[in-house]
Amino acid sequence: MPLTPDTTYVHLAHDGSVTPVPGGEAFWGLPPEQLSAFDQGWLITEFECTQDWSTWERHPQGDEFVYLLSGDAALVLALAEGETVVRLTGRAAQLVPRGVWHTARVFAPSRMLFVTRGEGTEHRPVG
């Protein structure tokens, strides 16, 4: 049966195994101790973004691959030399370096695919 990454996430474990898991609120609503089981390895998720993100995030244990499948959005990266804005339109991708705070501005409804190492992920409000 085919998977759709917006409703079924995929966890890629260090040992090479792949596990599909229910996505969306079914995933993010799990208790923290169950979510932590996905910290090791990589998580593939897809989201529709219709507005600017309300938080910054960073992933201290690995780079993140962000793939814009459709739409118009910009990733804002808080680099040592200052904020860098990377505009993505149509189909485009960006690598977010390990440990870099980042957020997104959305100019048109956008579908984004993320490949993320979740261990230690941090969030803080924008603004």
Keywords:
two-stranded antiparallel sheet, Jelly Rolls, mainly beta, 127 residues, globular, 9 strands, 56% strand, seven-stranded antiparallel beta sheet
Overview of the structural elements:
- This protein has 127 residues and is mainly beta.
- The protein has a single domain (8-125), classed as Jelly Rolls (Sandwich).
- It contains two helices and nine strands, in the order ββααβββββββ.
- Strands 1, 2, 3, 5, 6, 7 and 8 form a seven-stranded antiparallel beta sheet that branches. A two-stranded antiparallel sheet has the order 4-9.
- A hairpin with a 2-residue loop joins strand 5 and strand 6.
- The mean pLDDT is 95.
Mean pLDDT: 95
**Major sheet size, sense and barrel closure:** 7 strands, antiparallel
Judging by the overall fold, what is the CATH architecture? Answer: Sandwich
CATH fold-level assignment:
Jelly Rolls
Total DSSP helices: 2
Q: Which strand-content bin applies to the residues?
A: over 45%
Query: Helix share of residues?
Result: under 10%
CATH superfamily: Jelly Rolls
Question: Low-confidence segments, ≥5 residues, pLDDT <50?
Answer: none
Q: Quote the distance from N terminus to C terminus.
A: 43 Å
Coarse shape: globular
SSE ordering: EEHHEEEEEEE
C-alpha Rg (nearest Å)? 14 Å
Overall structural class, as computed from helix and strand content, comes to mainly beta
Using the coordinates above, name the CATH class.
Answer: Mainly Beta
User: What is the number of strand segments?
Assistant: 9
Number of self-contained structural domains: 1
Protein name: Cupin
InterPro entries: RmlC-like_jellyroll (IPR014710), RmlC_Cupin_sf (IPR011051)
Organism: Pelomonas margarita
